[in-house]
Amino acid sequence: MVLCRGRAGPQTLLPLIRDIAQVAPFRFMTTRRGGRMAAAMTSAGACGWISDHRGYRYESTDPETGKPWPAMPDAFRALARDTAAEAGFPDFDPDTCLLNRYAPGAGMGLHRDGDERDFAAPIVSVSLGLPAVFLVGGLEKAERARPVPLQSGDVLVFGGPARLLFHGVRPVKPGADPVFGPFRYNLTFRRAR
Ligand code: MD3
Ligand code: FE
């Protein structure tokens, strides 16, 4: 796991996130068991991650609109590829960016990202807006997770043995970010297919 503090420019990314959300709005997805996820989500790229009563998967179109997901902005792709290369993954070519939006009180329980075809590709995660505490566990869920405080602009690369670590996000505290206001955003770049 490689942490690049302040690697992303929040001001540059804000209008790109707005443009994506205009085509594919943030929405609260449901789990297979009927629960509502705490973070609102949308996607950009050739495919997007979704969850519904049938489970988790990647789809080429947005089920809310029936349209293809918005294209991944060049600046998103460049940020993900360049940071992955700096971390030792020069061939990373993400085909999807999942955008998570957390209001205060929202978090994400310990899980691992296992819906992708090839775990040789790393995952690049960009934190924006309100600070958060990221929890990085082990390869087994029972292992104690370590807290990693993250600020707007921080970028993490999870590759190699770190790719399948359990991870989560503590509930976000209320606050006001100068660029993003009362939210935390996370961009998660993955090679899904
Ligand atoms: C893969 N999101 O969407 S960033 C997720 O901050 C997710 O919104 C969190 O976990 C968020 O699935 C974390 C993505 C991430 C973080 C850590 C990982 C992916 C990871 C550690 C190992 C493998
Ligand atoms: Fe995850």
Q: Say which CATH homologous superfamily is assigned.
A: Alpha-ketoglutarate-dependent dioxygenase AlkB-like
Query: How many structurally independent domains?
Result: 1
What's the total count of β strands?
Answer: 12
- Inertia-based shape: globular
The helix-strand sequence is EHEEEHEEEEEEEE
Are any ligands bound, and if so which?
Answer: N-(carboxycarbonyl)-S-(naphthalen-2-ylmethyl)-L-cysteine, fe (iii) ion
DSSP strand content: 25-35%
Q: What's the level 1 CATH class?
A: Mainly Beta
Helix content: 10-25%
What strand order characterises the main sheet? 1-10-7-12-5-2
CATH hierarchy: architecture: Sandwich
Helices and strands, with pairings:
Layout: E1 2-4, H1 10-23, E2 40-45, E3 48-52, E4 55-59, H2 74-86, E5 96-102, E6 108-111, E7 123-129, E8 132-136, E9 146-150, E10 155-158, E11 167-169, E12 184-190
Antiparallel strand pairs: 1-10, 2-5, 3-4, 5-12, 6-11, 7-10, 7-12, 8-9, 8-11
The structure holds N-(carboxycarbonyl)-S-(naphthalen-2-ylmethyl)-L-cysteine and fe (iii) ion.
